[in-house]
Write a structure and sequence with these properties.
By secondary structure, the protein is of the alpha/beta class. It has 13 helices and 15 strands. It has 2 domains: 202 residues, Glycogen Phosphorylase B (Rossmann fold), CATH 3.40.50.2000; 181 residues, Rossmann fold.
Amino acid sequence: MNVLIFTEVLAPYVSGISSYVEVLKNGLEELSHQVLIVTSSPYVKEAVYKNGVVRCPAKLVNNKYGYECKNYNDPKIIAFISSFKPDIVHIHTDTKIGYMGLLVADKTNTPVVFTIHDYFMDRFAADSSKLLWNVKTYFEKQHFRDMIDNADILTSSCSRAAIFIQKAERKKKVYLIRSNTDMNQFDYNNSTKASIKKMRQKYGLAQDATVAVFAGKLTVEKNLEFVLSAFATHLKKSDNIQLLIVGDGTETDYLKELCKKLDITDMVFFAGSVANSIMPDIYSACDIYVCSSEDGLVSMSFLEAMGCGLPVLVKEDKEKIVDKIIHHGTNGFVFNKKSEFVKYLKTLSMLSENDRKRIRQIVRDSLVTANYSTMAEQYVKAYEIAKIKYRRRRFR
């Protein structure tokens, strides 16, 4: 099967979507399917094809990624991509690259699968005016609807996507496909004491501190204000607990200024965007993964951190979806209040070295024994369903 994947971002851009697409590509190729990825890049002036990836020129814009494809309807690019003769067009974004996917699908008479990774209302900086927020959200909602309306099936790693579809005023089934991560790559056993020490030195972290880490796009729905406020209100420097924030996004400057305002710059460190290849060493150099989002989908960084054995502190979501992954007191803790969050931070910080090693293995085992089918195998089944639905729709 020829699978044509459209994603606005891909490595070296660090995000859950980038990691998700990479894992999917590797899995499909292991099953002997052909994969071509189409993405955008602000670092190319014309479309470049290399190693199964077409990178289209991007322009800087104020969206969740900071850029998007410049000419999504470029006839030369579309002709080249169409020559791949796809059996499936798999779209992972409702930005310009997503619209290129719809154009190619229409040109090649190909079924469309749209994977929902985020929510159309959660893409702008917290300091946007109410008017600007409403205007932007209106257009984002339209883009989200366009993908839903033109897809033969919808997929997501989390059942909350059904709520997003409902809020977009659409009725369509979501096929749940659990995310996988590369457990061989994300394994703390691959990191040495020397590499861990080096990572801590690189980002200014104390060698003897307990380090909590967040990795992902710094956008408003991540709710990192909650974590920073908790650090400022309930922790002292003498607690020897630090926070490393990995990633970039619309909230970066705001969060840095907030750290100054809260006087916690000696406790919180920003790594910026980093290559995915060094993320296993970064996770292994930390002790705890933190997630304070209440509405987002389960991120790839969440799973990658667990693969590296980090217990997860996660804010309870409205639908209690995280309870299916985090077993309270075993592989992490679920919290509601800032005081609870800090209590669990302190509990984990007081563990002995042997207890930390034991918990790392428990966390990693909890991910392995979740007994997920491989993501690629599930997607192959979804692609076959999309083909059937497409034929029914076309010859109706």
